[in-house]
Design brief:
In chain A, 37% of the residues lie in helices and 25% in strands. Chain A is of the alpha/beta class. By secondary structure, chain B is α/β, with parallel strands linked by helices. In chain B, strands 2-1-3-4-5 form a five-stranded mixed β-sheet, with helices on both faces. In chain B, helix 3 crosses helix 5. The chains are: A alpha/beta, B alpha/beta.
């Protein structure tokens, strides 16, 4: 089986005629980490609900682990684990009791149940709280407890919905390590997150869903490169092209105009008008922004390495002393904003 | 198909939860006690010690006998015996007392003419005035018989708006009435308690299901269960079993409190009463399942259940017999399951009937239960 999940023209129309998912065609290869991105209301949750057999698709097909979600829902459920954004364990039960309950609900053999739970607790480092009630745990501990309960039946596919939201940086890193470990063990992981850094760092593939459609799909690097290659991937219409520009805030519009330009940030020891003027006149400098902390942010419209060097030469020749400098390629966040700001003319009508 | 292991987890969870929250256990015990105290003492008692004045304008044996009889009647609390008619009326008008019993100047006179006694009554208090009227009629009827005289009570109109004067006519002993109460001397509390038990079970079942289903939908626990390979009927069945267990405990407490506090006799036996309450609980748990099948939050559930629970409380004959209600409410009463629960409970507790005697009420209740469960499970979706 090549793909853990495959959808063919998957569509969901709710009773009020709202089309939440529109002919979604998606392939998630086995044993990979897939990042599912999209703005709020884009159709991610509906897609997950269909894939986890909580709701029925209106049309199309979804194959999970080789089973059709409509024909074999229980087989699909056995293959899935879910760590929801909202920790949905019983607060009055302990971590152990919640895990035991989940194990029994998934039909884990009784003689294996407790040893599996103990192993998982060790893996996610929550064993010290095994007899604590879930209601008494911190946010990070709850997520770990939720992971144990979701993994106890050894699911092939694990859905993680905003697993690190609200967690401190240290706990976040621990969970990231855990997600990588689980993937190394052979679990396919579907990660829904708004944390672009998290998705960029963890995922093998990323799909961006907007207004019920898959608008971008590639590796994180592939998506970023697509911006650098002058919109090689087919984004048909961006906010910058919308006729009614009053709908778009100025800052968003400027951001979109500059999204495929290289960012450069310089801290000068001796900033003065002469130096700033020299930067403005420098070839390839598209825009300049002076920050209060003395930093100068630039946008360079050439991806050539010499472009950066030319700007630096102009600064030095005008008497500027550079204390620090960094450059930045377009990020996954840039890709996300550009992709999701696409407006389908039909939908707008 | 129901899977026993999963089913058992629902009950276990409820028990663990109760064990770890002693406050909730206290609430389960306190709620029926509060209900029974509130309704039993608040609404089930008889009216006694109503403040009155006696205006006595005559002196003699009959007056003394009358005063003694009034004093020994529990209904009255004689604030003062006075001789001024105006003073007596003034006190009633001012609301200091509920009534003035006015004995005329010729009350003790040995005459063949009828003697007019006036009950000057504050009719703004309907319950008190009804009690005083019937009690006073009874007293003078008895006195009339005792002295075998021509004592009569005449009419006098009140000249002040909120008060009335009432004519109390002499009763002749031409007809002898023997009252044969087939279920004994039933007090209002006896009538009330069986229905209070039913109503309490209804309220706690309906509220409890809101917390269990809509609440868990809201907080996500139900979603986790529905993502497992488990049938809707197993999850729902488990929830029902857990809820029923709590309600049985509550029903037991209710029955014991009714017997202990109000000396209510359960003529049909404890076990039969308990069985009827269990059927009632099952019915209202089903009602809760049906209402919560599509609600996504507890708030939604409460808003949805109120239009059912509130009319059911007042129309199903809890406080007054259904037959005394306007015809439209009488018709409405028979579409509410609480009516049948109340009928069965009263049949068993007051009349000493058996389950076989109240079979029709029980069959209707079970019919409602089946209907609620079918609709509930059919309408229930896993979408959370």
């Amino acid at each position: 089986m090549k793909n853990a999940i495959e959808t063919i023209n998957l569509t969901k129309i709710y009773n009020n005629n709202f089309k939440a998912v529109n002919s979604l065609n998606l392939e998630i290869p086995n044993k990979t980490i897939f990042g599912m991105l999209g703005p709020n209301g884009a159709g991610k949750t509906t897609t997950i609900k269909m894939l986890t057999c909580l709701i029925q698709p209106t049309s199309g097909q979804a194959i999970v682990g080789g089973y059709d979600v409509q024909k074999n829902p229980n087989e699909v459920r056995n293959l899935l684990g879910m760590v929801p954004q909202q920790v949905s364990l019983y607060k009055d039960l302990t971590v152990m009791e919640n895990s035991q309950m989940c194990a029994d609900y998934y039909g884990v053999p009784p003689d294996e149940r407790d040893s599996r739970i103990e192993d998982l607790m060790e893996l996610v480092d929550i064993k010290y709280a095994r007899d604590k009630r879930v209601g008494q745990l911190s946010g990070g501990q709850k997520q770990k407890a939720s992971l144990v309960a979701s993994l106890v039946h050894r699911p092939d596919i694990l859905f993680l919905d905003e697993p690190t939201i609200g967690l401190d940086p240290v706990t976040k890193r621990t969970l990231w390590d855990l997600i990588r470990d689980l993937n190394d063990e052979g679990h396919t992981i579907i990660l829904c997150s708004h944390d672009m850094h998290e998705v960029d760092m963890l995922c093998d593939n990323v799909g961006i869903i907007n207004t019920g459609n898959l608008v971008a799909y590639d590796t994180p690097q592939g998506l970023k490169d697509s911006l650098l290659e002058n919109n090689k991937h087919e984004i048909t219409k961006t906010l910058s092209q919308i006729s009614d520009e009053s709908e778009v805030s100025t800052s968003t519009k400027e951001y979109l105009d500059n999204i495929s330009l290289k960012k450069m940030s310089i801290l000068l020891k001796n900033q003065n008008d002469e130096i700033i003027e020299a930067i403005k006149k420098s070839s390839n400098v598209k825009s300049i922004e002076l920050l209060r902390n003395g930093r100068v942010n630039l946008r360079i419209d050439s991806l050539d390495d010499m472009a950066v060097q030319n700007v630096l030469n102009d600064i030095i020749s005008s008497g500027g002393i550079i204390k620090s400098i960094y450059t930045e390629e377009p990020s996954l966040e840039d890709v996300f904003i550009k992709s999701t700001s696409e407006v389908n003319e039909n939908d707008r009508a | 198909m129901i899977e026993p292991k999963k089913f058992w987890w629902m009950i276990k969870m409820e028990v663990i939860s109760l064990k770890r929250h002693p406050g909730r256990l206290v609430s389960i015990i306190a709620f029926p006690i509060i209900m029974i105290l509130l309704f039993g003492y608040g609404m089930g008692g008889e009216m006694t010690d109503l403040p009155i004045v006696v205006v006595s304008q005559s002196h003699g044996d009959l007056t003394d006998l009358t005063l003694d009889t009034i004093k020994s009647t529990e209904t009255y609390h004689i604030v003062e015996v006075i001789d001024s008619l105006d003073e007596g009326k003034k006190r009633v008008d001012a609301g200091e007392v509920k009534a003035a019993i006015i004995l005329p100047q010729d009350y003790d006179a040995n005459t063949t003419q009828q003697k007019g006694v006036t009950l000057y009554l504050d009719s703004s208090d309907q319950m008190a005035s009804q009690t005083l009227e019937s009690s006073t009629q009874g007293i003078f009827s008895r006195i009339s018989n005792m002295v075998a005289s021509q004592t009569s009570v005449s009419t006098q109109d009140a000249d002040i708006e909120p008060s009335i004067s009432h004519s109390l006519n002499n009763f002749k002993d031409d007809i002898s009435l023997h009252i044969n109460r087939i279920y004994g001397n039933i007090k209002y509390i006896d009538f009330l308690v069986p229905a209070i038990l039913g109503m309490t079970i209804m309220m706690s079942c309906m509220m409890g299901m809101g917390k269990t289903i809509a609440g868990e939908r809201e907080t996500g626990e139900l979603a986790r269960l529905f993502m497992t390979p488990t049938s809707v009927s197993t999850v729902i069945g488990g929830k029902i079993a857990a809820k029923l267990l709590i309600e049985l405990l509550r029903a037991l407490i209710l029955i014991f409190m009714a017997v202990f506090l109000f000396n209510v006799s359960i003529k049909g036996g404890f076990l039969q009463t308990f069985i009827v309450l269990v059927i009632g609980a099952l019915c209202f748990v089903g009602f809760g399942i049906m209402l919560s099948s599509r609600t996504s939050t507890q708030e939604d559930y409460v808003q949805l259940s109120l239009p059912f629970s509130m009319p059911m409380m007042f129309v199903s004959g809890v406080f007054y017999p259904i037959e005394t209600m306007p015809w439209i409410l009488q018709k409405l009463a028979y579409i509410f399951p609480l009516t049948y629960l109340n009928n069965a409970m009263r049949g068993i507790m007051i009349k000493g009937q058996t389950l076989a005697d109240v079979w029709l009420d029980l069959v209707i209740l079970l019919g409602f239960t089946l209907l609620f469960f079918i609709i509930g499970v059919k309408r229930f979706n896993r979408d959370v």
